[in-house]
Amino acid sequence: MDKTLSKKKKILHILIVLLGLALFLGGTYAILVWTGLWEYVNSAEKIKNLILNMGFYGRAMFVLLQFLQVTFVPLPASMVVIAGTLVYGPLQASLLSLAGILLGSALAFYLGKSFGKKLVIYMVGKETCDKWVKFLDNGKYSYVIMMLLPFFPDDVLCLVAGITNMSWTFFVVTQFLTRPVGIITTAYFSSGEIIPYHGWGLIVWAVIIIVALALIILTTKYKTQIENFIGKLFKRKINN
Hints:
Layout: H1 2-35, H2 44-53, H3 58-71, H4 77-88, H5 90-124, H6 126-137, H7 140-148, H8 154-161, H9 168-189, H10 200-221, H11 223-239
Helix pairs in contact: 2-3, 2-4, 3-4, 3-5, 4-5, 4-9, 5-6, 5-8, 5-9, 7-9
């Protein structure tokens, strides 16, 4: 009887969380549409103008946008970083982006840890959830590499990681090691001042894209070998 009551309470708790999340998402969407902010999701220039129009509160808005794009609003992270770089420069935009993205990543992981697979399936879909759970359950070192490389769904991975055996310590350390790399790279290189989008720069960008794609394929294909190799390195360091 106690187990039945406990199960009912758990189900009720999940339903309440899902309802609250649905209301939050619906309310957020309604506000974005009502204020006209939803139109800003497709353009770095529009996001830049939004930040500028906020005046003194522009930085807070920028951090909030980065937080939301990790969790609830489908904003491309790179686009938001580029918009922030146009307003605040690469260094300040990188620091502000890092604050918002780290907070959003922590919330995504917390949601997965606290409310389990049902919530994750509700947010990302069963097929996506099952695919990445299967990958991450035995691939925590590969997760570090995936967070460093482009084209992997970083925000989805943060959420799904919460329902795997990954610890808070490993997750937080991974975020602090990997997130700055992508953010700083986007902030400093997206302008085309360091590597131009013409002439010799096109060759460099082509090489970067090919190398990134190759690493993505290798990470996916040789996950087991990567896990074993890095695991052995850690054991050697611990023993020494």
